[in-house]
Amino acid sequence: MPDMSSSAALAMTHLVPLAEVDENKVTPGVLGFIVFAVMALAVWGLMKSMSKQMNKVDFKEGSDPKAGSKAESRVESESAPAEPKAKQG
What we know:
By secondary structure, the protein is mostly helical. Helix content is 58%, strand content 0%.
């Protein structure tokens, strides 16, 4: 080797074990990648479907022209007794 400092040589010796592949280690391999990719696609599809369903929801409240404010209409609706529905049949 050409003229190398001791710190560079020490750094090279620490990096060599990282580059070696140990045959005794268990890795996820191709099957692990495929399972991960399928799960990622499933999550993407579910998120897309949820977004489509959430866009269908109307979050706007209907305004009541008779009531002055939302607080007044809420108080009126709470104080008024509920009317029983007529039985059908």
